[in-house]
Amino acid sequence: MAIVVRIDVELAKRKMSVGEFAERVGITPANVAVLKNGRAKAVRFSTLDAMCRVLECQAGDLLEWVADDDAAGDVTEKS
Predict the structure, then answer these.
(1) Contacts 24+ apart (CB under 8 A), 12-18
(2) For residue range 19-56, what is the model confidence (pLDDT) as tens digits?
(3) Can you tell me whether residue 21 is helix, strand or coil?
(4) pLDDT tens track for 48-77
(5) Can you give the pLDDT at residue 5?
(6) Which CATH number applies to 2-69?
(7) Which residues, 6+ apart, have CB-to-CB distance to 14 below 8 Å?
(8) Which residues of 14-51 are buried (b: 16+ CB within 10 A; e: fewer)?
């Protein structure tokens, strides 16, 4: 399983820079980059709440679950 972070899509829709977003959310631009590049291992709910508030969106607009290719091949049919 993989969680894909779609912050870049939401920032582009709003023509908002990473710097402005980071400042308004209260995190560093480096941490925004970690989120955007999929290197984050966790996100605090308070941070997710702030991101949604700043972007006026739902958490599902920022985070998407995508099945790994390997996981799809591991499913076996039982007879």
Answers:
(1) 14/55, 16/55
(2) 999 999 999 999 999 999 989 999 999 999 999 999 99
(3) helix
(4) 999 999 999 999 999 999 998 754 554 444
(5) 94
(6) 1.10.260.40
(7) 55
(8) eeeeeeebbeebebeeeebebbeeeeeeebeeebeeeb
Residues 6+ apart with CB under 8 A from 57: 10
DSSP secondary-structure letter at 39? -
C-alpha 62/C-alpha 52 separation (Å) is 8
Q: What are the structural domain ranges in the chain? A: 2-69
How many residues belong to the chain? 79
The Cα–Cα gap between 71 and 34 comes to 25
pTM over 0.85: no
Q: Which long-range contacts (CB under 8 A, 24 or more apart) does 26-34 make?
A: 26/50, 32/7
